[in-house]
Amino acid sequence: MVRLITHNLLACHVKGCTTNNFPLVFQDVSDVVVREADYNPDFLRGFLPRVEWQALVGAARQLNDASLPEAPPDQLDDDFLKKVHHVLLEIHVEEGAMVCPNCKHVYPISNGIPNMLLAEHEIG
Which domain of life is it from (predicted)? Predict the structure, then answer.
């Protein structure tokens, strides 16, 4: 499933595409589903330092969710963590694509699964 926790870890890996290849941009998204997930504030506190915040906020906004602030607050209170939980773990992109901002390679998403495979000439 393409959740924003996964999206935040993906970059384009086409041969020679080594700059401006993150974050991938959502395109032609036709199906977004919200699925409840168990809330675990300890997991979120531990995972947040690994999150590329601007990429997460941008991806959420591409999917019409503007609940996250431009920058994380100094105090990680429960209200903030619940917003992060929702964006990272409950928003699922079922149909659409992710596009590299540099080389414009398209990674299709079908039935919630991103196709990150490359043709042989694209592997580097």
Answer: Eukaryota
